[in-house]
Structure formats: C-alpha cells, structure tokens
Amino acid sequence: MLIESTLYYIVKICGAVIRMLPVEWSLFLGRLLGWLAYLFDVKHKDQVLLNLKIAFSGEKTPQEIRSIAKAVFMNFGQHMIELLRLPRMNEETFKRYVKIEGREHVEEALQEGKGVILLAMHTGSWELANLASSMLGGVYKVMVNPQARFSRLDELLNSYRSCGGSVVLERGAGTRELLKSLKMNEIVAMVVDQGGKSGQRVPFFNREASLSVGAVRIALKSDTPVCFAIIQRERGPYHRLTIHKKLHFIKTGHTQNDIRTNLQQIARIMEGYIRSNPLEYMWFYKIWKYSNDYEAIILNDKRTGHLRQSQTVAHLLESHLKEQSKTCKTKIVDVTYRNMALARVLMLCTFFATSLLRNFRVGLLRLCLTPDSFRDIFSLKPDFIISCGSAAAYVNYLLAKEQYAKNIAVLKPGSLNYRHYDLNILPEHDRKWEKVYDSNVIYTKGAPNLITKNYLQENSEKLLKRFSHLKIGDNYKIGVLLGGDTKDFVLSASKVKLMLHQLVEASEEMNADILFTTSRRTSEKVEGLIYRHLKRFPRCRLLILANRNNVPEAVGGILGLSDIVIVSGDSISMISEAACSGKKTIVFPVQSRFSLRGKDLKHNRFIDLLTEQGYILSSDVKHIKQAVYNLVKNKIQLRILDDNSVIKVGLKRII
Fold first, then answer.
1. What does DSSP say about strands 200-204 and 207-211: parallel, antiparallel, or unpaired?
2. Which residues contact 259 (CB under 8 A, 6 or more apart)?
3. Which pTM does this prediction carry?
4. N or C: which terminus of the chain carries fewer CB neighbours within 10 A?
C-alpha cells in the first residue's frame, strides 16, 4: 500500500508540474529523462537491444541498433510526458497537434451499423491517439489492460485517458461491454501486438510473435469492420493519426486458420510501419517470448574436426527442440582474425577484463576480426552460439554477451573460466587434472560427432550410388580411415607400409574386401605408397585418395558398409566416429613429433582411455592382422561409444 500511494502521489504531482510547463519544455524534459533511463535502466535497455537485434541484425550495424535503442528511450520519455499532459488537452488543442487522415474510412464503416474496431499497436504516442480518436464522432471506447498491482495509479491514468470523452474498458470485465458497444454501432479501440500466452503466433520480422486474437475473432464472428490505425510523430508535439480502409478479412469457416491468416496480414502492416520508423515502437516488452522459432550459429575456426563437433551439438540441439514442437535453424559463420597478434589481444582483453568489456565488446571484435568475418557474425541474431576449441571460444563469450544468447563451448575454452559459458562439453581426455563438477560442465568419452544409424545409412546409400560396383558381393568388409600429419604427429610412410602388409594378408586369409580412404592431411608420399600397393589389389573394392578425389560421404559410407574398421591414431574425431558407429574398431598409434612428451599427448591419453574402457582396440601396426582376427572371432568384445545422450542432458539444462 505504501509503495502504491507513493507512486500515485509522485505521478499526480509530476503531472501537475509538467502541465504548467510549455509543451516544448516538457517534451525536452521527457527526452532528457529517456536518455537518463537509457544510461541507467540496464534491464529494459537490454530488452530493447535484444528485440532490435532480433528484428534488424541482418540489416543494421551494431552501432545503428544502439543508436535506435537510445532514440526509443528518448521517444518513450516524450510519450509519457504527453500522457501526463492529457488533462490539459481539449478539442481545439488536439486539432492543433494531431492531424487525422482517413476519417472517412471510419464514417464508411459505421454505415454498416455493426460498430468499428480501430486496431492499433504500441507505437508513437498511442495514449494521445486515443483522445484524438474520440474526436471522430460518436461514442469512442478503448480497451486497456488493468494494472491489478497498482489499482489506484491505474485509476488515475484511466482518468487521464477519458478526459477527452472516451470511455475506458478493462479487459475481462469489459469484454461484454465491448460487444454491447459494437452492437450499438460505436467505435472501440484495441491493440493487437501483445498476445501473451493466449495469443496467436504469426511471423513477425522473420520470427513468430504472439499477437492478440480478440479483434480478429470478433470481426470474423460478427462481421464488424476493422480499420488499422497508427499515430506517428512528425516533429516536436505534432502528430499524424492515419486510419486505414476497412481490412478485408479472409473467412473460410475454419476459424483458427482464418485467425492466423488475417493476423499475418495485420503483422505485415505493422512490420512495414516499424521498419520505416523503428524509433517509435515500444520495444520494451518480450515480443518473441512465446515464439517457437530459434536460431543457432556455429563459430567456425576452419578446423574440420572442430566444425564437425560443433555441427553435432547443433544437430542434437535442433533434435531436442523439435521434440518440443520448436524449430531451430543453424548457420555457420567463419571466425577469421586479422592476424595472430590481434587474436592474442582479444584473448588477453577477454581474460583480464571481462567485467569491463560491456561497452567495448563490439569495438574489440571489430578491431580483431576481418571486416567480412565481423559483418557475417553480426548479421545474425542467434539464440544459441556454439564453438569448438580455444580460437573461437573468446569470440563466443563476447558475442553471447552482446547478443544476449546462450553459449556452448566444446573442448577447453582457452584460458577462460567455464562459468563464462552456459554449457561446456569436455572430452575426458582433454583434462590433465581433476574433473570440474559444475552444473554447466559435462564430460564425454569421445569427441562429439554426427554418427547415428540414420547418418550411416544415408552416407552408405550415397557411397553405393557413387560407386555402384560396391553392391556386388557379400564378403566381410574391412574399412580403413587413414589420417595424416598434424602439429603433434607424423604419419610416416614406413608405418603405413607395415600397416598395408598386415591389411593385405588379413584380407586374403579372411576372404575380406577392403574399403580405404585417406584424408586431406595425408601426405603425397603416403598417398603414392597406398596407390601402388592397393590400386591393383583385387580385394580392395574402394580406394579414395582425398587429395585427388574428395568424396564427402567417404567416412560415413565406409563406416556404414564395413564390418570392422582400422583407424590411424592422429585424429580424435575420426577415432570417435568409428567407436560410435557400432563397428569393431582398431586404432594404431602414430609417431609423435615430440618424443619427450610421449604419453602426455592427449591423443595417446584418449586412445588409452577408450581401450581401457573397451570401446576400441589399440594395436601396433605389426600386429594389426592378429587384432583383426581376434575381433572377427569375437575373442575380444567391444562396446559402442554413445555420448549423444550425455550431451542431450546438458542441452536440456539450458533450454
């Protein structure tokens, strides 16, 4: 009660003072108060920026969006001043400050004898529009939402709204009075842009928003004419109220479909006005709160393994949202630094000054990223941001803060704390110390990957279509996924030669076919060696040299068609894919560039861990034939690696 009484008297006293000032002075005061609110009202400022980014990220720069947000606050300050000045307004004053266009459209609609609904949205000085509309002739009534928390203040504001002769109806109790008014051929004003939970979701700025269905439902049921109306500030205290012709509603008899179709028509009109003048729309409420449309972006550091892991998380995110009857569109954007020095600058600034970066995030990203990369990143308004590896982790953190998005980091996010991310997905091999038991950290046994039964089947079918001869024969099939040199490992020709001898012997003794693919990291020397050994070998039914003929479905197709898989130990992603495929997997370690580091290399930790847990079989190249024999004869049983269920649990926490 004390708070309500205090607010009541503050508004009443402020209103009295403002009405004593010249209109230009009071509007200046409104702009000043709006500017101060922009500086200090962080909660509403963030909501305005979020809405503007959703609406205009693809069209306007971050600077333009912030400029619009500031103007929105200043315009809203003027609108509030005009609300408090309403008691001083009379018909003569209205005619001086508000020009009405389309009055004849209301008169034409009233001739039908079913009343008129003036349909509006929260833009411009809509409170002033209500009083201006009361000058149209006849009885004018406006529907408002009651403020139950501050009923006394609500009564004061309603008295301002009705000072020009209009009648205020409150939603709920006033609905019956509204219908009665329309039957008496009166004018009723309703807003359409705040539907809440009970509203109808329709596309609005390329994302579904909830619009109010009341006006459209009434019009469809009783054929009441509906005219869209909007007020816009022209300059200073001068406004233009535009009333459209009667809207022609589609009426097929399927009420729910008709409501949605006609609301889409109204949403397009609204969007057109807002695009032409976004400064006057009330962006303060959660416009897309009830939307079922989501967007995700993957920050691509141009490392194929990292991209595939991010795509896996995005795929699982889309799948989980689909289960909830929601959609999620994922786009990939490249993270490209101007140079390595600026990449380190971004890392240092993000690590040491995270709490001080609020007003410098956009400028810092513009400085460190190439113009194309910066433009592509800020052309989208994601709800989720996914990155893998430290190179993109810093951009992920800053962008998520700037775009009010939830962020997901795969692998250790550089030097940043895990708490900077809504979800961290960490393979167990990527840690050297004890686990971090935070609610936003989950651990997987392998690298996230796209391997599922459907994925294997689709890629197998593509591979069979591309290489039709693979359909012939029903022999046991040995698949080989060969990687190449990395910063930590060297895939030597001598090791590959030993592996090939073991592979050929195993295939001959077991009457097995070979399906073989290299990667783009495979050296030219090693590819030449493979070509000489296998090109004319009759049991090699498929040989794909990626640097000569890159086949996108090679890995997935071979995993799908093979009974047993041999993988080189240089790629954690490739090993994880094989272990998740459900096929018996043999991994042969490759030579480290840094012999002193030995088993400290995370690749070796990873191979040892999966071998201990029974997901793969680690074997030196000299013993691959025996390893194949042991698996074929079921002397060694392996488990199927499945991290997707773990990742889904983590995703559920942040959705």
1. antiparallel
2. 200, 213, 216, 217, 220
3. 0.85
4. N
